């Protein structure tokens, strides 16, 4: 009997096998205004176990609670973990909507591959997430600006200290009802550029949503705060290529010397940038609007020069949490560069973009990016 | 005279015109000159005694001028077995289907009945099918092809005058279907045709299908009806039934076009009338008893209120076409036992409106499913619960495996 031909096909995630355990002790809910961001967990979470021997087990929805792992689990020692950030919304009819969930599934599989974590059927996971959202639908505030933040996370629970390919893993999807990122309007932030802190590098893991990417950024965050700024703008190498700001992708609306308006954002090709889904949505919408989008490696010099010549009209970060975060100023080598105030005022490009994205996310207009799960 | 008493009672009951205006002249002649004997009896007519809503007292009259009227309740020589034979003179499918249902639901449960009929060009769709999807409705309308929706499940069939239909209505008995098939086979033998039944539903000649059948069960009776392909226009079938249906390639669905043939090709002398005669003789031979053949036609039976109601129901436009569901969600798939096409509206996690199209045979299943979906939570958990309820409440009526298959698919498709 030929052994090589005997490849056992291990089961993938199957939504049809989903087992639901309803909570017997519902958690107390607070007023939507008290939610903040990421502090509250909902009643239920999705949990799926994987092993190299058996493949993906049946998905389970269980009451949110502590997770018990072997102390040798790789996630604790070697940070073998990847995660996602996505949101679900309640529209004016009270129906639940997700925003481009298939993109998060694709990205999570890319992250998993990079860390040698198991891949999975994204469509099946989305079906499980839909069921999870429906179960906890009462946790989703029905108010524009509020949402259910979803945190899929996969990590290695391989129970030994030797660093090997993952033999056991778990995938969770956690839910956190969140309020608007900005309680009082859109407050622009100041970015601190310090080439000392390098977030990602070619050949590294900058293009996957790997927890280990973020651990070192706490220090640069504190340093930015010390310098009187809100977040760090990461650059690298001699050219000071612009990558990301805090945990967001960056966009700059710059008027060229000849007068044409261009939307700059660093390209993905060298693998140092996380392919954001909000980032992708902004690029696609901007192109639809006829804006010239320049997706190329972006040296900081272009931004600094534009600022000095009053050609940098707007700058903003994009991410699931804030959607769009206006940038009011940059600090580089001790010098401050302030952007025009009308850049984040009503009628500006980024405010129009933000309004459009929210229209789509809250189902105010029919759009294929918004999946209504009723 | 029994007949005049009967029609008098009828008139009194209904306060309307006499029962047989067409027979008024012979009636009057009868009354005027009772001694006159007409050498040729008038065509047989049916008289329905209004005093009984049950058709038990359906009687055959031989109307002859001057002859005493005889009541014949079949010529039942053997008191144990009773037979009745009806032939429809109408090609109107609404009339014919209504009459068949009326005979089935109102007929005498103890009597073996044979009803022979045929329809003008018609497409007959199943109870839950989507008329717009199954056939070319506009083309049918402009070319005078009837659209008929029957009350039983299943798929769409095309019929025309080259398609003869037999209906056996018998007291519930395990032997009925094999015996009925034998009656048909022996009738065909009369034309030198060697036919044989396959499974329950088909009769074939050299593996080519010449007859397809369907069954209905009531508490005490069984209905077994089938078509006989005498001289059907095969091209028309493709003309009126939707050619885009992928189901023509799939298995196990009613409208799948089997390899068929017309009986006329095997015996040029075979037509609806000669075939009917042969079937009738074979029927008598099988039961060992004869009776008069009764003609049914539109004019006679339109005066029976229950029949009129049945026919009006079948003719009703809303019944036949149904309304365009126009709902926000549309879920569709095919199972071995039938196609399912669900249209629904859902809001705030609950299904609010449903319309289910299907060619599945189990009417109870589709009805229960449609009703059960309204108010069902729009979630896997909700559908799973509905599945459990359907299995529990529909015990005996529904196929458990089919319910599970459908609910698994539905939960995954939300």
From TrEMBL, chain A:
GO BP terms, alphabetized: amino acid biosynthetic process; branched-chain amino acid biosynthetic process
E.C. designation(s): 2.6.1.42
Annotated PROSITE patterns: AA_TRANSFER_CLASS_4
Catalytic reactions on record: L-valine + 2-oxoglutarate = 3-methyl-2-oxobutanoate + L-glutamate; L-leucine + 2-oxoglutarate = 4-methyl-2-oxopentanoate + L-glutamate; L-isoleucine + 2-oxoglutarate = (S)-3-methyl-2-oxopentanoate + L-glutamate
Cofactor: pyridoxal 5'-phosphate
N6-(pyridoxal phosphate)lysine: residues carrying this PTM: 209
Protein's name in the database: Branched-chain-amino-acid aminotransferase
TrEMBL record, chain B:
One GO term describing the cellular component: cytoplasm
Keywords: ATP-binding, Ligase, Nucleotide-binding
Family: Belongs to the LplA family.
Record field: transmembrane: none
Domain BPL/LPL catalytic: 108-291
Protein name: lipoate--protein ligase
Organism encoding this protein: Cymbomonas tetramitiformis
Origin superkingdom: Eukaryota
Catalytic activities: L-lysyl-[lipoyl-carrier protein] + (R)-lipoate + ATP = N(6)-[(R)-lipoyl]-L-lysyl-[lipoyl-carrier protein] + AMP + diphosphate + H(+)
